[in-house]
Amino acid sequence: QVQLVESGGGLVQPGGSLRLSCAASGFTFRRYAMSWYRQAPGKERELVATITTAGGNTNYADSVKGRSTISRDNAKNSVYLQMNSLKPEDTDVYYCQALWISSYWGQGTQVTVSS
């Protein structure tokens, strides 16, 4: 059974940091590009960051570029998103996605940036 389980979200003050994790199981993780998306209620899901299968290439949305780092550990079947200098507008539910022949999604983890 395919599973993507996000963790690491929570409440953080503006300027703070969070590290999101996504643990994968049930498919050959190393063959899949991995991405983080975020979505606020009533809005479209937004691509935040993508990393290729071996981690050699990454891409970021302009809104998080310079403040976030996506990484992966294929030995642990996990992908991470380190977010620094968080802003209130980063408040969203964050989802990880695996993409190759199929697309898989996790259930999301809430990030709230507020003082």
Briefly characterize the structure.
By secondary structure, the chain is mainly β.
Count of individual beta strands: 11
Largest sheet: 7 strands, mixed
Mean pLDDT across residues: 97
Globular, elongated, flat, extended or rod-shaped: what is the shape? globular
Unreliable stretches = none
Tally the helices: what do you get?
A: 0
What would you report as the Rg, rounded to the nearest angstrom? 13 Å
Query: Pairing-aware structural class of the strands and helices?
Result: mainly beta
Q: Share of helix among residues? A: under 10%
Strand content: over 45%
Helix and strand sequence: EEEEEEEEEEE
For the record, give the distance between the C-alpha atoms at the N and C termini, rounded to a whole number: 40 Å
Q: Mind sketching the topology for me?
A:
Elements: E1 3-7, E2 10-12, E3 18-25, E4 33-39, E5 46-51, E6 58-60, E7 68-73, E8 78-83, E9 92-99, E10 103-105, E11 109-113
Parallel strand pairs: 2-11
Antiparallel strand pairs: 1-3, 3-8, 4-5, 4-9, 5-6, 7-8, 9-10, 9-11
Summarize the structure in words.
With about 120 residues, this protein is mostly beta strands. It has no helices and eleven strands. It has strands at about 5, 10, 20-25, 35-40, 45-50, 60, 70-75, 80-85, 90-100, 105, 110-115. Strands 2, 4, 5, 6, 9, 10 and 11 form a seven-stranded mixed beta sheet that branches. A hairpin with a 6-residue loop joins strand 4 and strand 5 (about 45-50). The model has no long low-confidence stretch (mean pLDDT about 95).
